[in-house]
TrEMBL record:
Matching Gene3D superfamilies: 3.40.630.30
MF GO annotations: acyltransferase activity, transferring groups other than amino-acyl groups
Protein name, entry field: N-acetyltransferase domain-containing protein
Species, as recorded: Lentithecium fluviatile CBS 122367
Domain N-acetyltransferase: 1-96
PANTHER family associated with the record: GNAT FAMILY ACETYLTRANSFERASE, HYPOTHETICAL ACETYLTRANSFERASE (EUROFUNG)
Cross-referenced InterPro entries: Acyl_CoA_acyltransferase (IPR016181), GNAT_dom (IPR000182), Trichothecene_AcTrans (IPR052523)
Superkingdom assignment: Eukaryota
Pfam families the UniProt entry points to: Acetyltransf_10 (PF13673)
Length: 132
């Protein structure tokens, strides 16, 4: 990211009882609206199962980040978590320019969503709470 001005969406969660009701999308849209007003991009570091949610909102994958989970003393719970996909995904939604009241995407970013390993995950079945 360097010194590029951006808004970072940080720690978005939706309670499981509110999944699939648009709550996550509303939180994401709020951040996008703020960035659009400032004409700057939005970034988020996501977990893999939430990539589809951000992708549907126009975010593109910039990088997959491997997380080192090796520690000297581990509990059984930690060992269980270490077996899961603990990668992080750096995603961004390019800045939109406001011209005569219309928003304009940057053409070079329109097709990049296909670069993500996008897979749908049922948030209730997986126990993950930040899938919208």
């Amino acid at each position: 990211m360097g010194s590029t001005l951006h808004i970072e969406l940080n720690l978005l969660f939706v309670h499981p009882s509110h999944c699939r009701h648009g709550v996550g999308r509303m939180l994401i849209d709020w951040g996008i609206k703020k960035a659009d007003e400032l004409e700057i991009e939005v970034v988020v570091v996501s977990v893999p199962f939430a990539v589809p949610v951000y992708s549907r909102s126009g975010f593109v994958c910039d990088a997959w980040i491997e997380v080192d989970v090796i520690v000297e003393e581990t509990s059984e719970q930690w060992k269980e978590w270490a077996g899961e996909d603990l990668r992080a995904v750096l995603m961004r939604k390019p800045a939109r320019r406001v011209t005569s009241g219309l928003m304009n995407d940057r053409p070079e970013d329109r097709d990049r969503v296909e670069e993500c390993d996008v897979r749908e995950v049922d948030c209730m079945a997986s126990g993950n709470v930040n899938d919208a």
